[in-house]
């Protein structure tokens, strides 16, 4: 039986940063400065590390290249306490690279240099995922090929896990099948529009209704939509609700979405309801956006009491 509660099947990558005054518009040339690498990784690594630093029992299932990025994945996840027994370095692939352009107002533009062929493939999921028989939650995402992520969810469901999909990143023309094997779909405002086939400039007044449409369309059991500074909403088997944001001064939002999903699952594994898990994750993310960077900002368990108290939410401890 698995010694972990949560298995993450998603990408590891290496993050490069630069600063601009504001996010450029189409046709605009922006002057950048402070180009550098940071302790920043792919969405899968972020989620695994966030859970592990809180004391959660989590494993990362996937691969990277035999290069600096791949070796840093071993180092960062290993130091955090992630089970990396099924994270391997493949000499035939290169580790994904992401560039984050960070504006002075805290907004950011992310560019991903990803190749689906360089991440875990379906035969490799069949080979490695059975090692985690007995794990309770599986988190997958589109840092790997969509087919691989959906297959991981199907396989996890067959193994008795609660399946969670972060349908990100997505192209504008992404089309997904019905996903009756999916327990929780987690997406943001932009991804809602893509999955509902709406133009990017569509104004959505009722995200609760949009989440219900997604639940009906894709046949998944529960849908959570993150709304940035406006909080989040959920349409679930337990009921529908909105989680109000914790107001803070944003420094940057890099890695906040990954932290939200990770800590929702962390709290579910502790036995909390979905609503309780989302409320806890919302406060956690309010702290994250006051810190620069991503991986380095995910706090350890011993920091949580002070963070939540300082944000006025000691009631959630």
From TrEMBL:
InterPro entries: Carboh/pur_kinase_PfkB_CS (IPR002173), PfkB_dom (IPR011611), Ribo/fructo_kinase (IPR002139), Ribokinase-like (IPR029056). PROSITE patterns: PFKB_KINASES_1. Residues 41-300 form the Carbohydrate kinase PfkB domain. SUPFAM superfamilies: Ribokinase-like. GO terms for molecular function: kinase activity. One of its GO terms (biological process) is phosphate-containing compound metabolic process. Keywords: Kinase, Transferase. Pfam families: PfkB. Belongs to the carbohydrate kinase PfkB family. PANTHER family: RIBOKINASE, SUGAR KINASE. This is Bifunctional hydroxymethylpyrimidine kinase/phosphomethylpyrimidine kinase. It comes from Youxingia wuxianensis.
